[in-house]
Amino acid sequence: MIAASRLRVAALWRGLDRTLIFIVLSLIGVGLTLSLAAGPAAAERLALDDPFYFLTRHAAFAVAGIVLLIGTSALSITGVRRIAGLALIGSLGLMALLPLIGNEINGAIRWIRFGSFGLQPSEFLKPAFIVIIAWLFAEESRGAPVPGRLIALLIYAVSVGLLIIQPDFGQTILLSVIFGAMLFAAGLPWIYTAGLGVAGGGLLMIAYFSLDHVQARIAAFLAPQAEWAQTERARQAFAEGGLFGVGPGEGEIKRLLPEANTDFVFSVAAEEFGLLASLAIIGLFAILFAQAWTRALRLTDHFAQLATAGLALLFGFQALINIAVNLNLIPPKGMTLPFISYGGSSMLALCFSAGLMLALTRHRPGAYEHRS
Questions:
Q1: In Å, what is the CA distance from 366 to each residue of 62, 173, 296?
Q2: Rounded distance, CA 127 to CA 315, Å?
Q3: Torsion sign over Cα 190, 174, 348, 88
Q4: Cis before residue 51, ω within 30 degrees of 0?
Q5: 62 with 347: CB under 8 angstroms?
Q6: Mapping DSSP to helix (H, G, I), strand (E, B) and coil, where does residue 72 land?
Q7: In this structure, what are the phi and psi dihedrals at residue 142, rounded to the nearest 5 degrees?
Q8: Domain boundaries, given as residue ranges, for the chain
Q9: Which residues of 175-194 are buried (b: 16+ CB within 10 A; e: fewer)?
Q10: Helix, strand and coil percent figures for the chain, each rounded to 5
Q11: For the residues 198-202, what does the mean pLDDT come to?
């Protein structure tokens, strides 16, 4: 019995993409390093007794996330679909309850408090949404009597509606871009995809003219006051860091940024470790995206292919948005840098996403096309 179990574990390990595992673990390691750099300043700003409060919690979430990643990566294709369905129902249900039981932070109700842990259901919505949408598209494409695109559109509408109520326009934009890309990948003509893009742009315009806080955020981005604007301070970190950085723990910008260990952790990396370290982080995300996308293209199962591509887009676009905010290219979105920013829900959900991707791309007989 023990020998058989060891053989199954060995077979699972051999089938996993080692490059994806290495990149994810490397990003988690980078996050712990930057948490050590930025965490004490955040703890000091909040008058916490323990200067390593955020590092300790970050490490605990990282360990729990890795365990979740390993467990999820062992799932079958059917298991991936089932657990994603449960996660989708659960996250949508909790998001619907947020106005009643949610915890308000900075004017947004996105978290449910469980003791010292704040659960953000929308983080788990993203991978679950991607997998289920991919399954619906695949079912329709193979001729199943299921209006896959229509059901997918309804799920998207409900998801976006609940995100806007919070409000969380950053996640709304991210989910919308991924949904449009998956529609196109599933065979929707580009003219219809472009039409959906125009409709999305129209909704953003409506949001701008009807919601005061959206106008205020964009106005602050377009005409910032350098002495207090977060994005201006974040951009300053790149100038201060230069090529090699000022040294670990020597940065000053992190003491001025309220979210230095979360939204603006990339700026901490730029100041203390320099441009080369920043480019290395970008390179890790590029390799993660390219490897996942390449594996997706080689898969023969249409559902696994679409889901893997969608998850790759999740990692790529979320990293791109966070880095663009740090470079003051777009307004702040409150979006974490995958696997690096401090945040329990984010770490667990992203490790769950990575586990799903590893399960979908795990080598199985007949799962891949043979290409010379």
A1: 34, 36, 14
A2: 10
A3: negative
A4: no
A5: yes
A6: helix
A7: -90, 5
A8: 18-361
A9: bbbbbbebbbbbebeeeeee
A10: 70, 5, 25
A11: 70
Contacts of 266 (CB under 8 A, 6+ apart): 234, 278, 281, 322, 323, 326, 337, 340
- Distant-in-sequence, close-in-space partners of 24: CB < 8 Å, separation ≥ 6: 69, 288, 339, 351, 354
Please list the residues that pair with 111 across neighbouring strands.
103
- pLDDT value of residue 7: 58
What is the gyration radius of the CA atoms in the chain, in angstroms? 21
DSSP classification of residue 337: P
Handedness of CA 69, 74, 77, 78 (dihedral sign): negative
What is the distance between the alpha carbons of residues 108 and 199, in angstroms, rounded to a whole number? 25
| Cβ atoms of residues 217 and 332 within 8 Å | yes
CA dist list (Å): 129 to 111, 138, 227? 19, 14, 40
Contact predicate 221/331, CB 8 Å: yes
- Residue 319, classed as helix, strand or coil, is helix
Q: What is the pLDDT of residues 143-188, one digit of tens each?
A: 777 788 899 999 999 999 999 888 888 899 899 999 988 988 877 6
